[in-house]
Amino acid sequence: MLLSICCSTFSCFTRALKKGERVYLLGLEQSFGHYHSVGLKLGLNLLKAREQGTLVFYEGLKKMLELSAIPSPSPLSSASPGVSSLQGLYREVLAGLGESRLLLLDNLSLLSCLGHSVQAVAAFIHHLRLALRARYCSNWHSAQCTLHTAATG
Question: How confident is the model at residue 135 (pLDDT cuts 50, 70, 90)?
């Protein structure tokens, strides 16, 4: 079992969908339409994948703006006063993951642009990794249960 958090890595996404694995895509910068267009060029029909439940697309930027009115103190909080916490986004992502073994995060730098500190974004990723590992890996030291972050720049 391979658990992954991939940042803007379309190859992880393509591989998982072609294998029939459930994928959760947290879209912060791009819309579903963008990914669907790119997918069609690569032979993937993301509308069909979404209808079949293989793909879950979460409108992260839209939700971040909705959740920004609810500040709460937590390790995922932004260090900047008056800026909302990432706790709400974290809870929503975890709730939506279901049986997804692949979580793709589209351009996390937008969280900083929204005023969240680097520490808050790092805590967000850290807690997602811990939650995924706890959910799917009974033996944390197993060679068959790895968690990696792939980033492209």
Answer: confident
Q: What is the dihedral of CA 72, 113, 125, 53, to 10 degrees?
A: 100
Structure confidence by residue, pLDDT tens digits, 99-109: 887 888 888 88
pTM: 0.74
* 80 phi-psi bin (left φ>0, alpha ψ -120 to 50, beta other): beta
User: Which residue carries 């839209």 as its tokens?
Assistant: 62
Give the position of tokens 């939506």: 96
For 63-99, give one letter per residue: b (16+ CB within 10 A) or e: bbeebbeebeeeebbbeeeebbbbbbbbebbbeebee
CA–CA gap between residue 7 and residue 45 (Å, rounded) = 21
Spatial distance between the Cα atoms of 109 and 54, rounded to a whole number of angstroms: 26
Contacts by residues 68-74 (CB-CB < 8 Å, ≥ 24 positions apart): 68/114
